[in-house]
Amino acid sequence: MILATVSLLAGAAAGLIGALFRICLLKADDWRNALLASASNWSVAGFLLVVTVCAVSTAVAAWLVRRLCPFASGSGIPHVEAVLHDELEPAPPALVPVKFVGGVLAIASGQALGREGPSVQMGATICHLIGKLLRRNPADCLVLLAAGAGAGLATAFNAPIAGAVFVLEELYRRFDTRIAIATTGASAGAIAISRVLLGDQPDFHIDDFAHPGFGTVPVFLAFGAVIGLLGIAYNRTLLAALSAAERLKRVPVELRAACIGAAVGVIAWFAPDLVGGGDPITQRTLVATQIPVWLPLVLLLRFLLGAVSYSAGTPGGLFAPMLVLGALGGSIFAVVCLYCLPGFAADPRAFAVVGMAAFFTAVVRSPVTGIVLATEMTGSFTLLLPMLGSCFAAMLVPTLLNDPPIYDSLREQTLRAQRH
Fold first, then answer.
1. CATH class given for the domain over 214-419
2. b/e per residue, 74-105, with b = 16+ CB within 10 A?
3. pTM of the model
4. Same fold, 2-198 and 214-419
């Protein structure tokens, strides 16, 4: 009973921080767009200003991480998993301001990073700290840490069920009644607070879909297999980018980050709609009935930009960029179906929604979380059968090809870095 009560209060605290983080990111995106709009009138001087601002913001975010709290680098989810596996110590309280400020700077500068990584790690740290302040035993504190991670995810995507499922499926990988109570309590507390500040509408707004017929199952299975291969490529590209950054460790991390930030600034100057976390891209993809011919180039750019952005060593997650790639991949696959299977009425919007869940599954290997997350974020409940089929194939293909889940690989890299 005490743990359940504490989980509600701790989750509310995590939800407050997560909601404030989202609000700051929205304001920062508006600021970046305003800067780009104003600088476009200044020709070369405006271009140099945008590139410089992006480079400096990214460098400052990397400096904060290196100087004040190295645990704040990257997503933070691998660190939470390592703590729960008793491989690392919990992050200190200093992580919260570093993750908050560094995440705002990095994502506001245009890096293709998600808000959920910082929200998850900040939520986990806050709930663990509250457990210690209330003198709960170490076992309860670890349960609260995991529950706080779920509360952070719930707040990041306005998806309370996905937040709770994520803890059980990805962090613990087992069902435990005590953990489930604390996790659902924390997610409930977080979403109650965050919806006061952010509203209660799904993150993405789409029209209702008709229930797909049974005859579409083979096509969605094939789609899942293709997405599974794309997920393998994404995992390997991300790890290759991190390995390349590791080989450049003699170069100060701030300089590496500044170079990445400058490159993102160049992209922002020529294509301002393609940088940042990617929610606007996902929203446009989910409502588009006609797909532009250059969409594959957008997919390729975001694919590479996500990996490069993550290698900068700044705070930022992977979920939101993955949802972008899944939605883009689904729309492109639907167009291919229209040409290769003229009798098959492929709705690009339906494939985009299914693609979000399937790509998440291919990369993370948490299909239930992916399905629930895509459903809660879009408010669409008519695509569960296609999602199940696509996620089945998207998980099967990487498993057969012995490609490890991305957070397992990132956790191993985190442990190696700590040992060195």
1. mainly alpha
2. bbbbbbbbbbbeeebebbeeebbebbbbbbbb
3. 0.94
4. yes
